[in-house]
Design a protein that fits this description.
The complex is a heterodimer.
Chain A lengths: L5 E10 L2 E11 L4 E6 L5 H9 L6 E6 L8 H5 L2 E5 L10 H9 L7 H10 L13 H13 L5 E5 L7 H16 L4 E6 L2 H7 L2 E6 L2 E7 H6 L8 H17 L1
Parallel strand pairs in A: 3-7, 3-8, 5-6, 6-7
Antiparallel strand pairs in A: 1-2, 1-4, 8-9
Helix pairs in contact in A: 5-6
Chain B lengths: L1 H14 L1 H21 L5 E2 L5 H21 L25 H30 L2 E2 L5 H19 L7 H22 L4 H27 L8 H6 L10 H14 L1 H14 L10 H26 L4 H4 L5 H34 L2 H15 L1 H25 L1 H5 L3 H27 L1 H35 L5 H25 L7 H11 L3 H14 L2
Parallel strand pairs in B: 1-2
Helix pairs in contact in B: 1-4, 2-3, 2-4, 3-4, 3-5, 3-17, 4-5, 4-7, 5-6, 5-7, 6-17, 9-13, 10-11, 10-13, 11-13, 11-15, 13-15, 13-21, 14-15, 17-18, 18-20, 18-21, 19-20
The chains are: A alpha/beta, B mainly alpha.
């Protein structure tokens, strides 16, 4: 049996008095698209930060490609492509400088693919990142996250606040990533129609608890779904979880 | 308008109420202790006695606290080019004069009140020896605070320039006070000097907020264009790429500041009468000391670290190594620039022969080799202290904790404010000098113990957390010991005199070579990168 791409086991996290994650367990297998959905502040980014090694598990374990990402950041991060909602690319760099800088870290960098993406996204290589619009920054971030064909692509609310055209670009990139050589994608969002469009597996999270985690097909086919949309199922589960926790 | 002024006042007091309460309790407590417990104790400010420290030090701390609070500097990044005035306030439906004016007015009232209330409490408590001026010190504090507000709210064309300008104003402000005390300036003279400054600072503050509200940030884009550091070919390794990023992001700050400040200092060589050996060497000393001083100002910004950098596939040690390489390049660039400026200034001002003559005198006294080594060692000490000052604070910036970064900036400002009065007391008072001399071994021993203990703790943590392998830690320790041995040998050779016993030179060598804070940098990064 192959090692899962990500194996999170019983991790918990507190920020002061607030419980950000509570005994979260999650496994990502190779070659699938995982949708991580939840309201703002539900704990999606906290899970992703654990996967990237930006947070060290206080309780439980996190293994990415069989390694602890906080202990082996260089080896883990070299196999991950990451695009965040914050998109804090250095604003003072020009796009060509960003590409030169980023490619130095990834031996598998595909120059032709990077150029193809740049042209597809209509990005000017001499433009300063700081002068780009939000959508263009997202595209630039996506370019440098995809050009080395990472084994795991992590997208943290990548299309939040973006126009439909940029969102289509991002979803298209996700589809291409899956099509090529069975790579894994973790896609966090609170836009359920997006997740429904690309995900094989959906994990719903509410107030740090996983309330539902199953294949999308199984969720939609379950007797409880009964013709409901993913939106309805999400509201039902999150509402139930919130009521249980408050009680 | 009235609502806005009240809202601004409420926000300032609500956010800083704890500090204001502590201040009030201290002032009342001091008055009560002086009045009830120490009624006979004499309080003297000129020259200050021990009891005066209980007034002067808290007032200095309060003053620094006010600077942070009323300028909104506690909630902004002082190293950025953009204004530190809170952006959220730009959307309030009030005029710019209201936004800038009320915090400045509250700052003025608060600083004047603290001084006057403090002095009155001291006077009421009794036992005061000599007169304490009431108005001009209050105005001096208010003027300085108003300038700090204006400079904090201004946008700058370069990162870190705000700190440099602030320190220059701080020095000028300190100088005015020292000169006023030295020359016993009258109250009227001081008011005439200080009052207009407050008005000018208010105007600058208004325009700073107006510019910031319109999103105006001056940008000297031509500097990177001519720095020749933009790569055209792919980087040969990730380490080179990261070193390039660090240089572009932080490395140029020190050389650019040097390029602005050092020529101004060297321009003094061109003034009539400044061609005597004493003055020439004094000015060269000022230039040489400027670089280590500027390195202290630049250092806090060097440790900044973004999520983008944190997600590079690099170890913590490699990321810190790139920062260290940047500090070396920055130091070298700054000193090369300085050397060029100094040579040009000496030649063009016609003062080069004065320097050459003094160097020949040294050669005659010490011999050619010894004279060369002495000059090289002195220069090396300045260069190394510049680098040391750049790297010492890396661990603070890399900790990623805003409260640590802001506290260190405030502490630095406080120490800077206190340095002049302390030096003044030590230089003028023989009893103080005797005390320092008598207890110097103990003070040095305590500092050495602190440094070595801290370094040992850091080394254990580095090993336990797996940030550095044991071999690298041992290697670094050996390299540090070698550097200390070289420093000790140089000092022993240079200062071969019974005046400087071996323990003294040894302690100086240990304290001079960076260890604890430098080795804490990867630990701080690991802590902030993998929280």
């Amino acid at each position: 049996m192959s090692v899962p791409v990500v194996a999170i086991s019983e991790i918990s996290r507190r920020y002061g008095n607030k419980e950000a994650l509570s005994s979260v367990t999650l496994t990502l297998e190779q070659g699938r698209v995982y949708g991580l959905v939840g309201a703002n502040g539900a704990g999606k980014t906290t899970i992703i930060k654990h996967i990237l090694g930006l947070l060290k598990a206080e309780e439980g374990t996190v293994r990415v490609f069989g390694m602890d990402p906080a202990e082996n950041p260089a080896r883990v991060l070299s196999r991950i492509g990451y695009l965040s909602e914050e998109n804090d690319l250095p604003g003072w760099m020009r796009l060509d400088e960003l590409v030169r800088y980023t490619r130095a870290f990834y031996p598998a960098w595909d120059e032709a693919y990077a150029e193809e993406l740049r042209q597809k996204f209509a990005l000017d290589s001499r433009a300063k990142i700081g002068s780009l619009s939000k959508g263009q920054k997202a595209r630039a971030g996506l370019l440098v996250a995809l050009a080395y064909r990472p084994e795991l692509l992590v997208l943290d609310e990548p299309s939040s606040g973006l126009d439909p055209i940029v969102r289509r670009d991002i979803l298209g990139a996700v589809m291409r990533t899956i099509a090529g050589e069975g790579r894994t994608v973790l896609f966090s969002s609170h836009l359920l129609d997006e997740v429904e469009e690309v995900a094989d597996h959906v994990t719903m999270i509410s107030r740090g608890h996983i309330v539902l985690s199953d294949d999308l097909e199984a969720i939609m086919a379950s007797p409880r779904a009964d013709g409901k949309t993913l939106d309805d199922i999400f509201v039902e589960h999150v509402g139930k979880s919130a009521a249980t926790q408050e009680a | 308008m009235q609502g806005a002024s009240r809202a601004i006042a409420w926000e300032l007091t609500r956010r800083h109420r704890l500090g204001l309460i502590v201040l009030g309790v201290y002032l009342v407590g001091f008055w009560a202790v002086k009045r009830l417990v120490l009624p006979e104790a004499v309080l003297r400010f000129d020259p200050p006695n021990g009891l005066a420290a209980f007034v002067v030090i808290p007032l200095a701390i309060t003053f620094v606290f006010f600077v942070g609070a009323f300028s909104y500097g506690l909630s902004g990044d002082l190293g950025t080019r953009e204004s530190c005035f809170p952006r959220r306030m730009f959307y309030l439906p009030v005029g710019t004069a209201t936004l800038a004016g009320w915090p400045m007015l509250y700052g003025t009232v608060a600083s004047v009140s603290v001084w006057i209330i403090g002095v009155l409490l001291v006077l009421v408590a009794g036992g005061m020896e000599g007169d304490v001026p009431l108005i001009w010190p209050a105005l001096s504090i208010a003027a300085f605070l108003a300038w700090m507000q204006a400079l904090t709210w201004l946008a700058y064309p370069l990162r870190g320039l705000r700190v440099v300008v602030a320190v220059l104003v701080l020095v000028a402000s300190d100088l005015i006070v020292v000169l006023a005390i030295e020359f016993h300036a009258t109250e009227a003279t001081m008011i005439a000097i200080l009052a207009p400054q407050i008005a000018v600072a208010y105007v600058v503050g208004y325009f700073a907020v107006r510019m910031a509200r319109r999103g105006m940030v001056p940008d000297w884009n031509w500097i990177p264009a001519y720095a020749g550091m933009t790569p055209e070919k792919p980087f040969s390794s990730p380490a080179r790429a990261q070193a390039w990023l660090e240089w572009r992001q932080h490395g140029r700050s020190l050389p650019v500041m040097v390029a602005f400040v050092v020529p101004c200092e060297l321009a003094l060589l061109f003034l009539p009468g400044n061609d005597r050996a004493g003055m020439v060497f004094f000015l060269l000393f000022v230039v040489f000391i400027t670089l280590p001083a500027m390195a202290i100002m630049v250092a806090p910004a060097l440790g900044s670290f973004s999520t983008h950098a944190a997600t590079r596939p690099f170890t913590d040690a490699q990321l810190v190594a790139a920062k260290l390489e940047m500090t070396v390049r920055s130091t070298v660039a700054a000193w090369v620039l300085t050397a060029v400026f100094v040579l040009i200034a000496l030649v063009w001002s016609g003062t080069m022969p004065v320097v050459v003559e003094k160097m020949r005198d040294l050669e005659e006294i010490a011999g050619t080799t010894r004279a060369f080594i002495i000059a090289a060692l002195v220069l090396a000490a300045f260069v190394l202290s510049t680098w040391k000052n750049l790297v010492q604070s890396l661990c603070i910036g890399l900790s990623g904790r805003p409260w640590i970064i802001r506290s260190s900036v405030l502490l630095g400002l406080f120490l800077f404010v206190m340095a002049f009065p302390i030096a003044w007391v030590v230089l003028r008072k023989q009893p103080v000098q005797r005390f320092v001399w008598d207890y110097l071994p103990w003070m040095l021993a305590a500092l050495v113990w602190l440094k070595v203990s801290a370094a040992a703790w850091v080394a254990i943590r580095l090993h336990d957390r797996g940030v550095l392998p044991a071999r690298a830690i041992v290697g670094s320790a050996l390299a540090w010991l070698a550097a200390v041995a070289i420093a000790y040998g140089s000092l022993a050779w240079l200062l071969a005199s019974p005046m400087f016993p071996p323990y003294f030179l040894g302690a100086i060598a240990i304290l001079a070579v960076p260890l604890a804070r430098l080795s804490a940098a990867p630990l701080a990064l690991a802590g902030s990168r993998h929280r």
